[in-house]
Amino acid sequence: MENSFTVAIVGGTGNLGGALALRLGAPGVKIIIGSRDAEKAKKAVETLKPSLRAGEIEGTTNQAAVKGADFVVIAVPYEGHAQMVTDLRGQLTGKIVIDTVVPLNKGKPFVPPAGSALQEAQQILAGEAPVVGALHTISAVDLGDVDAPLGDALVCGDNAEAKQKVMEIIQRIGARAFDGGPAGNAYVIEGLTGVIIYLNRKYKSKHSSIRITGIGD
User: Would 217 be classed as within a structural domain?
Assistant: First the structure.
């Protein structure tokens, strides 16, 4: 993968979007924070800039953010997921979509009609761009602290080349990434977020993650 690329984080004014922006910025990735409200995106950027170690960051509307990006991260609550992907349809050709969304109801995972958030996005986009599921098991708190160790990431999707590129990005930000299989596995991986939320509440932590053993190092 090329050393220089741009990542748009749509719905990027939330906790996950801001944390991911800081983590991506550390190795010098260019980040565009997207929001329905351009001013809200710009305010989020001004809040993040003092903590940005490197890289470039700007804020704009979701549509403008996507236009200038190679990778598009969907980082909205599940309730807004289908509408967000629908709004971006027709603008994603030649890009890779990274879907971080988890179907949750009061912190508990559920399986949506499409089978998973990733498969929902696939249905809406109908082949316009490859959709890769990732970052469901990494704490936003740890993402936002660029010196904190990260857990392992399971990456799934039906396009092998797109998965590999997303895995390389995850490795660049300091986590180990593993191919978690096709899109049909997404409901399992997305559901792990609910388990991690429970663990954090049960053991009064904000840093729960998963670790894959018996493979590589």
Answer: no
121-145 confidence digits (pLDDT tens) = 999 999 999 999 999 999 889 999 9
Tell me how far the alpha carbon of residue 81 is from its chain's centroid: 12
Output the six-digit token pair for 189: 């991986």
The answer to whether 112 touches 135, Cβ cutoff 8 Å, is: no
Number of domains in the chain: 1
Residue 210 lies in a domain: no
Q: Is residue 117 in a domain?
A: yes
Q: Which residues constitute the domain of residue 107?
A: 6-202
Q: Is 207 inside a domain boundary?
A: no
**b/e sequence 161-186, b meaning 16+ C-beta within 10 Å:** ebbebbbebbebbbbbbbebbebebb
Q: d(Cα 97, Cα 120) in Å, to the nearest integer? A: 13
**What would the pLDDT profile of 6-33 be if each residue is shown by its tens digit?**
999 998 888 899 999 999 998 889 999 9
